[in-house]
Amino acid sequence: MREKEIKILWGRSGNRCAICKLELTPDGDKETLGEMAHIVAKSNDGPRCDSPFEPTERDKYKNLILLCPTHHAEIDKNYSDWPVERLRRIKTGHEAWVSEQLSTGSIRVAEIDNTEFINTRMGNWYELNRDHVSAVLCLTPLRISGDQIDTMDQNIQQALEAANLPGKNPIQKVNRYHTRPSEFGIVNEEFPNLPKRFGHSFHIFKNGHCEYFKELGHDIDRITERVKEKGEDIKGAKYVIRYTDVAEVVEAGLAWLEQLWETILPFEYLDFKFMLLNTKYTTLFSYHDDWGESTFGHPSLSKNLIYKDILTKDHDPASLELDLLRWVSNCYGLVLQSKFNSNGQYQRPVTMR
Fold it and tell me: Which of 20, 52, 96, 327 is paired with 318 by a 20 to 30 Å CA distance?
């Protein structure tokens, strides 16, 4: 589900169940937790799936209806009593009711929006990246509404320190002596003095936001220097990002965030973002057999590359990871078929032809 679709749904629904008018929240008690239900099922074997509706349209606002947990279960269990047209009429009527109530001041709507918070974090990430390429993976509540978790709880500290550093073999955990309280929650971070740029930060916020920040500058400097020494054609790019470095960061960051969501984060929906910062004039380096077959993507002209989605707790982590790696490859004009090859190693992105 896309952020824009979610904000439209919650806003026009007035944070209330379209059937019973119960006031809902994206981050509250289970009984009042709003559920974004599909009118026509997303899967081809779900409720009302026989309705003629393109699969690519099924996660969009026009096919979503906001319901309480009770009525979401009801329409999917007894779907013959809740056909598509009935649900659409209910949704239209409910939104008209919300508009009328708002105009008379009978109800108020708490906006579902974390934009201001994310923009503030973007500023902080730019301070951390020290004028080079960095990666960020984060999960954020749909609405920032005060403290949601006690970051001084021992279980939270253990969850923070369960993070693995990417690309380490054998697997290496973060150094627990780098864990400390912060003004926002609790953080484990290490940033070596310049010119070394391989710092990282794992941060859990009291409001439920969790983020992994990783500098890629050190590795990029090394691979860029080697590529230029070999005289490779990098199509005018200034810096070279090795695909496997990105893949390792994605794998480590996603694994940590997924574990947090499973064990400590009290949300059914979260805003997910993966970003590569300072990517203008960078290219992606894909290779086989060390330097036997080298492939370089097209240089990025974007300052930042940003992937974002609204996730439900029952999403498929493996599909998300592959989507991210394919997206990164596509941003540089390359294509990726799978995460691993037949030898269990990272499959490298290639040109289309």
Answer: 52
